[in-house]
C-alpha cells in the first residue's frame, strides 16, 4: 500500500468539518458541521462525545498536512513547451536519441533502436496517442480534472508525462530541451488512488509526473510503487479476478511464460501484477501489426522477424483456445526488446486473461467440438501452411487432471477468502473438466 493511500484510508475513517455552538433557551448545544456537495450538513454532538470528536478533528488536520507534504514532495512535471505541443523534437530511448521530428514530420530515425511503431508508421502523433490513458474510463476523466487537463487530444495527454511509460524507456523531448531521462522518469505513485478508486482529495497547484497518464486499457487500474518495484492494480468482478488468477497458474503449469498475479488483501475486487517488462522494453503488437489482430496477420508479421517468435505466438493462441480467452488483441501481446541496443529478445509473457474461463458466463460449453474459440484455432492451423508446419514443433508441458484440479481449487480458495459473498456459485469440478477436456481435444 502506498503512503498516500494509507493516509487517505485513515482520513476516510475520521469526521470532517468543525464544531459549532448554539445557545437555545439558555442551554449550549454543539454540532458537527461540514460541507457536502455545496450544502452545509449538521449533526448534533452529545456532551460526553465532544472531546472525542475534537480529538478526531485534530487528527484529521495532521493527516491532511501530511498529505499536502507528500504531494509537495513529488517531482513537478516539466512544463510542456510550444515545440513539444507541435511535436517538434526527438523520441528518446533513455538518453539516446532514436528519431527526430519537425512539426510531426519524421526527419531522421535509428531503425535498430527506435520504437517499432515509429519504424512502421513514421507517425509521432499516433505513437503518443497509442500510449495515452483511455478516456472512456471514469477515473481517467477524474485524473484529468485533478491534473487540470481539459479538451486535449490523446497525443498531447501522453505528452504531459512526456510520452514515458513504466514498461519501456521511450519518451519525447522537445527540440532545445535539456531534460534527461532521470528528469522525467517516474518516482511516485501519487495519483494511484485517483485512477483506481476515483479519489479526488489532492488538488495540486502544480501537476506532478504521473505514470497514470500513459497506462492504457479499459479497466480501472493504476501503477503502485511497492518496495522499489512497480505493480499494476486492476479492478474487476469476482469472476474476472478468478479467471485471471487461474489462467496465470495454468499458463505457468504449461510452461508458458506469464505475468505474476496476486489478489490484493483487504481490497475485494482488485488484482495486482508485477511489471513484467523489468529491464526490457515491452512493445505491443500494434507496433508491428497495426490494428489487425487476426491470427494470419500477427503470425505473418512475427514470422518475418523470427521463427521462434511465430512459434511462441502459436503457443499463446493455443493456450487462449484452452482457457477460452476471447480477448487476445494487439495491445495485450507484444515483444520484448533490449533497452540499450533495441535487440528483440522474445515474445512478451502471457498477461490479461480476465475475460477467459468463467469471466463472462458460469454456463460453460462443455463440448469442445462445438466451441467457437477452438474452431477458430483449428481452422487457422488448417488454412495457414506456416501455422500447420510450426504447430508440430510447439511444445507445452503436459496437463493432468490432478494438476488442473490443484490450480482450480487453489485459485477458488484464495478468491473465497478475499472476495467473500461476491464469489459464489462456482462449480470447481465443472471448471476442472472444462479445462482438461479442451486440453485433450486440442492435443489430439
Condensed summary:
The protein has 444 residues and is an alpha+beta fold. It has 17 helices and 14 strands.
Task: Write up this protein.
- The chain is of the alpha+beta class and 444 residues long.
- It folds into three domains: 3-73, no CATH class; 87-226, no CATH class; 272-443, Phosphatidylinositol 3-kinase Catalytic Subunit, Chain A, Domain 5, CATH 1.10.1070.
- Helix content is 40%, strand content 18%.
- It contains 17 helices and 14 strands.
- The protein has helices at residues 3-12, 50-73, 82-85, 116-121, 124-129, 138-146, 154-159, 181-184, 192-197, 238-253, 286-289, 295-305, 307-323, 372-383, 385-391, 401-419, 428-443, and strands at residues 18-24, 27-36, 39-45, 89-93, 96-102, 105-109, 170-174, 221-226, 229-235, 261-263, 270-274, 280-284, 334-338, 344-347.
- Strands 6-5-4-7 form a four-stranded antiparallel β-sheet, with no helix packed on it. Strands 8-9-11-10 form a four-stranded antiparallel β-sheet. Strands 1-2-3 form a three-stranded antiparallel β-sheet, covered by helices on one side.
- β5 (96-102) and β6 (105-109) form a beta hairpin.
- α12 (295-305) runs antiparallel to α13, α13 crosses α17 and α14 crosses α15 (385-391).
- It is flat and about 95 Å long.
- The relative contact order is 0.09.
- The model has no long low-confidence stretch (mean pLDDT 92).
Amino acid at each position: 500500500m502506498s503512503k498516500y493511500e494509507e493516509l487517505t484510508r485513515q482520513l476516510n475513517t475520521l469526521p470532517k468539518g468543525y464544531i459549532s455552538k448554539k445557545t437555545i433557551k439558555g442551554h449550549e448545544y454543539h454540532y458537527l458541521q461540514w460541507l457536502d456537495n455545496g450544502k452545509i450538513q449538521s449533526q448534533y454532538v452529545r456532551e460526553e462525545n465532544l472531546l472525542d470528536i475534537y480529538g478526531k478533528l485534530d487528527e484529521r488536520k495532521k493527516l491532511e498536512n501530511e498529505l499536502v507534504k507528500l504531494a509537495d514532495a513529488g517531482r513537478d512535471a516539466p512544463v510542456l513547451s510550444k515545440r513539444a505541443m507541435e511535436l517538434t523534437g526527438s523520441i528518446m530511448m533513455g538518453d539516446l536519441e532514436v528519431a527526430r521530428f519537425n512539426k510531426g514530420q519524421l526527419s531522421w530515425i535509428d531503425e535498430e533502436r527506435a520504437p517499432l511503431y515509429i519504424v512502421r508508421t513514421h507517425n509521432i502523433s499516433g505513437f503518443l496517442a497509442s500510449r495515452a490513458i483511455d478516456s472512456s474510463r471514469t477515473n481517467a476523466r477524474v485524473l484529468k480534472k485533478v491534473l487540470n487537463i481539459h479538451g486535449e487530444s490523446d497525443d498531447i495527454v501522453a505528452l504531459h508525462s512526456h510520452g514515458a511509460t513504466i514498461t519501456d524507456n521511450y519518451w519525447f523531448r522537445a527540440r532545445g530541451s535539456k531534460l534527461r531521462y532521470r528528469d522525467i522518469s517516474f518516482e511516485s505513485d501519487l495519483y494511484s488512488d485517483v485512477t483506481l478508486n476515483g479519489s479526488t482529495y489532492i488538488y495540486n497547484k502544480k501537476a506532478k509526473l504521473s505514470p497514470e497518464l500513459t497506462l492504457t486499457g479499459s479497466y480501472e487500474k493504476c501503477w503502485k510503487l511497492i518496495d522499489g518495484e512497480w505493480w499494476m492494480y486492476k479492478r474487476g468482478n469476482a469472476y474476472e479476478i478468478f479467471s485471471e488468477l487461474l489462467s496465470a497458474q495454468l499458463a505457468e503449469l504449461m510452461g508458458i511464460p506469464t505475468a505474476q498475479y496476486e489478489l490484493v488483501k483487504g481490497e475485494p475486487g482488485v488484482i495486482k501484477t508485477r511489471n513484467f517488462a523489468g529491464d526490457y522494453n515491452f512493445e505491443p503488437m500494434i507496433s508491428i501489426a497495426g490494428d489487425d489482430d487476426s491470427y494470419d496477420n500477427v503470425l505473418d508479421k512475427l514470422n518475418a522477424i523470427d521463427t521462434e517468435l511465430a512459434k511462441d505466438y502459436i503457443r499463446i493462441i493455443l493456450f487462449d483456445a484452452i482457457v477460452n480467452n476471447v480477448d487476445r488483441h494487439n495491445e495485450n501481446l507484444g515483444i520484448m526488446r533490449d533497452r540499450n541496443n533495441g535487440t528483440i529478445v522474445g515474445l512478451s509473457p502471457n498477461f490479461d486473461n480476465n475475460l477467459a474461463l468463467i469471466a463472462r458466463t458460469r454456463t460453460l460449453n462443455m463440448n469442445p467440438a462445438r466451441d467457437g474459440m477452438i474452431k477458430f484455432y483449428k481452422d487457422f492451423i488448417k488454412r495457414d501452411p506456416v501455422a500447420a508446419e510450426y504447430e508440430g514443433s510447439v511444445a507445452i508441458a503436459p496437463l493432468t487432471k490432478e494438476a488442473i484440479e490443484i490450480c482450480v481449487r487453489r485459485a477458488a480458495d484464495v478468491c473465497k477468502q478475499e472476495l467473500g459473498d461476491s464469489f459464489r456459485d462456482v462449480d470447481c469440478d465443472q471448471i476442472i473438466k472444462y479445462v482438461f477436456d479442451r486440453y485433450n481435444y486440442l492435443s489430439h
